[in-house]
Amino acid sequence: MSPEASTAPQTMFDKIWDRHRIMTREDGQDLLFIDRHFIHDVTATAFDMLRQRGLKPRAPERIFGTPDHYVPTHGRDMASINHPERRAMIEALKRDAAESGITLFGLEDPRQGIVHVVGPEQGLSLPGMTIVCADSHTSTHGALGALAFGIGATEVGHVLATQSLWQRRPRRMRISVDGTLGPAVTAKDIILAIIAEIGVAGAAGHVLEYAGSTIRALSMEGRLTVCNMSIEAGGRAGMIAPDDTTFAYLAGRPYAPKGADWDRAVAQWRGLPSDEDAVFDREIALDAAAIAPMVTWGTTPEDAAAITARVPDPADVADPDRRDGMERALAYMGLVPGTALEEVGIDRVFIGSCTNSRIEDLRSAAAVVEGRKVAGGVEAWVVPGSQQVKAQAESEGLDRIFKAAGFDWRFAGCSMCLATNGDMVAPGQRCASTSNRNFVGRQGPGARTHLMSPAMAAAAAVTGRLTDVRRLMAGG
Ligand SMILES: CC(C)[C@H](C(=O)O)[C@@H](O)C(=O)O
Ligand code: SF4
C-alpha cells in the first residue's frame, strides 16, 4: 500500500470495510470477515442447507438468536400457538441453535424480542463491527457505528460455514440533517421526510451515513429508528458515527466490553467517524426546522406527507408511471384526493416493530395517551420490542397508562408489523402504525397502513383519526 493510500481521508464505512477485508477476487468482490451474525425464526432454510452439506457453523460464539416473527404476543405459552407452521419455525430455531451451541434468547427468556431491538440492547451490536442477519432491517444496528446489512439465505449459509461473506463494495452517500426539530417532530419524521424526498430507490447501491447537528442530537433510540428505515430508501446499510451518546448507551450492557477492555474499545471507536475531508459519492442535506410530523397516505414509505397536508391528487403529477402508481395506491387505501389527512378515520393502532418499540418510543406515546381514552371503535395495541423493554416500561408504569386508556399491552415480537404470527389488521381496516412498511397486504390482506411516529400513533388512537399530535400538546 502506498503511504498516500493509508493517510487519505476515509469515510467511516471505508474504515470498517477495509479492516474486515480478507481478500479481493478478480471480479472485484471483497471477502469480508463478519463479526456478528444474528438469527431469528426465519433463518431455518440456511441451517438446512448447511446440514445437507455436512457443515457446522464455524464460529457459533459470534452468532446470537431470538424468535420474533412467529411468536405469539398474547402470551408466552408455546402450547397456545395452535398453528403448525408458526410452531415449526420457532422450534426449528431452537433446534438449530442447540445443535450448534448458539446462544438463543428463546420464547421464555426475559431477553427475547425483535432481533434488531435485542442486539443493541444486549450490547451485542458494537461500533466498528460488521453485522449481518437474514433480515432487511439489519441496517438498524448501523446506528451504533457498525456496518450492518441484511443478507439472503444462501449468504447466511456462507457466513455460518466460513464467518465471512463476498460483497461488492457499495458507494457512499451522506445525508446531513441540520438545525433544531420542531415540537413533537421525531426521528421517525426525519426518516419519513428523507424517504419522501429521495424516494424508495433514492439510496440504491449506497451505504448511507446520517450526519449533521440534528442527527448528533438524537438519542440512541432515535438513531436506531433512522437507520432502521435505510432499506426503505433502497440503501444497502445506514450508519451514524459513534460518539458519547453511543458510548453512554452501551456502557454496562451485558455483552459490551468491561473494565480495561471497555477503555481500549472506546479509544478505538473514537477513531471510527469519517475523516473531515472524506469524500462521499453523493450528498443530500435536509433542514430539520422544515420537517413536520409525517404520515404516509399510500403504499410505499415514500408516499409520505406532513400531517397538515391533503391527500395528493395524481392528476397533478406529470410522470405517467408515478401517476398510475398513485392512483392504484389511493384506490387500495380508500382515499380521495384533496381530503385533509387529519380527516382520515382509523380503526386500529399498532405501536411496535423494530422501528419504534423501544423505551423512548413507548414513553413518548404514553405522554400523549396519559389521562385520555382510546376513541370508540378503535382497537389499539402496544407491542414492546423486547421483553426487556416491556419490563422497563412496566417498572415506569407505562403499561398502566396504556391499559387505563384502553390499549392492549402485549408481549414482545414483530406482531402486526408483518402479521406472520397471526396478529392482523382486517381487510379494509385502516391502521395507524409505527412500523416501517405500508406495502399492500403488509398487515394482513386488504389492510390499510399509515406509517407515523409513536406520538402520532398515540394521537390517532385517542382521536380516532389521523391527527397532528401538536394539537393535543397545545390543548393539554
Ligand atoms: C421476514 C424477513 C426476512 C423480512 C425482512 O427481510 O425484512 C421481515 O422482517 C420484514 O420486515 O419484511
Ligand atoms: S418488526 Fe417488522 S420490520 Fe422489523 S424485523 Fe419484524 S417484521 Fe421485519
TrEMBL record:
CDD domains: IPMI. Belongs to the aconitase/IPM isomerase family. LeuC type 1 subfamily. Coiled coil: none annotated. Its EC number is 4.2.1.33. Its cofactor is [4Fe-4S] cluster. Keywords: 4Fe-4S, Amino-acid biosynthesis, Branched-chain amino acid biosynthesis, Iron, Iron-sulfur, Leucine biosynthesis, Lyase, Metal-binding. GO terms for molecular function: (R)-2-methylmalate dehydratase activity; 3-isopropylmalate dehydratase activity. HAMAP family: LeuC_type1. Binds 1 [4Fe-4S] cluster per subunit. It catalyses: (2R,3S)-3-isopropylmalate = (2S)-2-isopropylmalate. Heterodimer of LeuC and LeuD. Catalyzes the isomerization between 2-isopropylmalate and 3-isopropylmalate, via the formation of 2-isopropylmaleate. Pfam families: Aconitase. NCBIfam families: leuC, PRK05478.1, PRK12466.1. Pathway: Amino-acid biosynthesis; L-leucine biosynthesis; L-leucine from 3-methyl-2-oxobutanoate: step 2/4. [4Fe-4S] cluster binds at C354, C414, C417. Gene3D superfamilies: Aconitase, domain 3 (3.30.499.10). This is 3-isopropylmalate dehydratase large subunit. SUPFAM superfamilies: Aconitase iron-sulfur domain. InterPro entries: 3-IsopropMal_deHydase_lsu, Acnase/IPM_dHydase_lsu_aba_1/3, Acoase/IPM_deHydtase_lsu_aba, Aconitase_4Fe-4S_BS, Aconitase_4Fe-4S_dom, IPM_dehydratase_rel_enz, IPMI_cat. Residues 14-464 form the Aconitase/3-isopropylmalate dehydratase large subunit alpha/beta/alpha domain.
